[in-house]
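Re: that chain you flagged

S.,

Sorry for the slow reply, it's been a week of failed gels. I finally had a moment to sit down with the sequence you sent. For the record, here it is as I used it:
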Amino acid sequence: MIGDKILFGSKSPLLQVAEEIALTHHERWDGTGYLGLKEEEIPMTGRIVGIVDFFDALTHERPYKKAWTEEEAVAEIKQQSGRHFDPHVVEAFLQVIEHKDHLKKKKKS
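Prediction finished late last night. Pasting the structure tokens below so you have them in one place:
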């Protein structure tokens, strides 16, 4: 909400999207996020950034936790499909991850 207040009212389309993301990327598909938005009420930008932010937070070490493996993070995202995350965005995310993994394997050969 602080990010939303900082970015509020800009005439710049880019900063308007940033404001929307700041406000909505912690919303949950089931409506249990900060604002209580659910499903299609959550802007697509917030749904996409929400998954990416979650994946990033899990796969990087923090002072209070060790980093999860990508496989563990992907498994958690799959488990949260339909609760925390939009199932369609989860499917798109998984396609990107699979494509990235395919490219890694191809590069090694």
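What I noticed first: The chain has a mean pLDDT of 91.

Talk soon,
D.
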